[in-house]
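Re: that chain you flagged

S.,

Sorry for the slow reply, it's been a week of failed gels. I finally had a moment to sit down with the sequence you sent. For the record, here it is as I used it:
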Amino acid sequence: MLIISSFEAGYRWFDIEDWSQGCIPSFQLWCNNSEQKSRFLSLPGVDFYGYDYAFFGNHTYRQCASLCSRLCECKGFQYKPVRGANGQCYLKAQLLNGRRSPSSTNSFFLRLPLPLHDYDESASNNGLVCGRNGGGAIVLERPEKENELVKFMLWFAISFGGIEVVCIFMVWCFLFRNNGMLPRQGYVLAAATGFRKFSYSELKHATKGFSEEIGRGGGGTVYKGVLSDDRVVAIKRLHEVANQGESEFLAEVSIIGRLNHMNLIGMLGFCAEGKYRLLVYEYMENGSLAQNLSSSSNVLDWTKRYNIALGTARGLAYLHEECLEWILHCDVKPQNILLDSDYKPKVGDFGLSKLLNRNNLNNSSFSRIRGTRGYMAPEWVFNLPITSKVDVYSYGIVVLEMITGRSPTTGAPITELEAESTHHERLVTWVREKRKKGSELGAFWVDEIVDPSLGSNYDMKEMEILITVALECVEEEKNLRPNMSQVAERLQSHDNESR
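Prediction finished late last night. Pasting the C-alpha cells below so you have them in one place:
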C-alpha cells in the first residue's frame, strides 16, 4: 500500500517503531468538527484503486471538491480529466490500495484542514514518506536489486504454505461435512470482514428485549436498538429456520462487507451465537419508502420522490457495475429502500442477493425463485436466465408505485365506461393504457395516474421523464430494458439541467 503523508500536512506515524502500519491524521476529523474548513492537496499520478464512496461523471474539479467538502466521510477524491468534456470524480472514504504511476494523467486530491501550512509535494516520490517529531521527512527508497536467493526462498515458502493450507481445509471439510460443522466455518470467515461481533446478550439489552419492531420481511424482523456508546441502530433478527436463516446470514455478511456507497445501507456488526443470527445496521430515521408512501402525513413531496428514484438508481448501478463483485439484489421493493434524516435513499436487505459470475453473466442460475410478488420480473416465472435486468424491472415497478401511490400487489382500480362494476388490473398495464388513450385523444392524462396526495404539485417535465424511464424498465423483453447506470445518467442529467 502506498502511504504519502507529512507531519506538516496533518499526518503522523501510527507507530514510529513500525512504519508498515502507515499514517493517521493528527487533526480532528470533519464528522466531529463540522465547522472546520478544508483544502485539497494535489498528488499527481497517485491512485487509490477501488473503495469508491461515490462516482460522478461529467463534473468539474470545483464540483468534485464541493461534493467532497460536504461529506464528512470523504478523505479526498480521484479526478480523471476527459478530453473535450468535464472529468470523472471518484470520492474516497478509505485510502487503501494506493499506488503511483508517473505516466498517469490522473491526480488524487487529499483533503486537509485549511489552517495547515502548504505541503512540499516534491518530497514524495516513489518512496514512503511520513513526518516525525523533528518536523522533517524521511524517504525510504526502494532497493533497485533484491537478493534473488532470498526472493526464491520466500516464494517457495509461500507456495508450500498455501498448498498445505488448502490440503488441511479439504481434509477438514471431508471429515466434518456430515456433522453439521461446515456452516460454522462461514461465521469464522464472516468475522474476518472487520465488522464488530456482538454477543446475543448485548443486542438483547440494546433492543430492550426486542420490544420495538420497526420492520419485518421474509428473512427476519428488524428492531430499533441503542448500543452502549449511545448509537441508535437497526438490528435484524433472522428467523430461526436452520437452513434458510444461516444461508441468508452468510449472504448478507459476505456481500455487505464488499460494499461502500452513499446509497447503500451500512452494516456495523453481527451476532453469530448458538442458534441466533443477527445483523446490526445503521439506523434510518425516516424508515422505509413503503412506510412513507402509506403514511397519511404526505411528507414525500415530488422533489423527495424524484431524488429517491435517482439515489436508488445510483445504488443499484453500483451493485451491478461498479463494486468489486457484481451483485444482483433480487428483492428491490419499497420496504428495502430506507430513508435517512434528509430523505436520502439507501438500498438495504441483501439477504436474497447473488454474486454474478463475471464470465457467465447471461446464464446465472438460482435454486429457487427470489423476490416479492408484484415486483418480480417475468424471467422468474418463465425460468429464463437471470441477469441484472430483474432488478431493473423491480426498480421500474417501485417508481410507478411512487408516481401513482398504488401498490402493484393489489393492482389499480379501473372503472370502465358504461359499466357498474369496478375491477383490478396490473399497475403496469393500467399506466400504459392511460398513456395510450391520452396520446390518442390529446388529453391531459398524467393527472389521472398521479398519486392524489401530490395534487398538481409536481414538475411536468420530471414526471414525464420518470414515467418514460419506469415503463422502459418494466418491458417484458429484458433486452429492451436499460441498465441501471443508464437510468441514473438520464435522471441525473435532467436534475443538473433543472438547477
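What I noticed first: The domain at 182-282 is CATH 3.30.200.20 (Phosphorylase Kinase; domain 1).

Talk soon,
D.
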